[in-house]
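Note to self: keep these together.
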Amino acid sequence: MDIFANLSDFVAGFESWQQVGALVLVSAIPFVESYLGSFLGVVLGMNPVVAITAAVIGNAICTFLLIFIADRTRRAVLAGRKAKSDDEPSKRNQKVAGYLERYGVPGVSLLGPLALPSQFTGPTMVALGASAGRVYLWMGVSIIAWGVLSGVLGVWVAGSVA
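Structure:
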């Protein structure tokens, strides 16, 4: 929980109007994302709609940029560069590939934050061959859903503490 305290201090250290930008930055960090970012913003006293929106934007920008890079890289590899066939996929890629096969893009996108950050699962799904358009769509839905759910939890926690 030390990281949560450090992030709280970072965001709280700004003027209220600057906290929105700080929350966008914090929410771009893997494992913080929209869910912890929105919770953090609400608990720090930000308007829940503003906190959730800032956290979703920060998480989405980072995740979508990484998906874009993964898609462009995959296209370049498939267009002419031959990947070594004897390379063993990483444990993380194997884990995501197994989930992708079992649950599809919607399932991995919506359930993925329980295991890995969206900044890992989104690009990995694209690198494994999932349609970038479907990954953008479902990761967007997931980022918003987790942000709203955590923001509502933050409202509930902040209300019970007050």
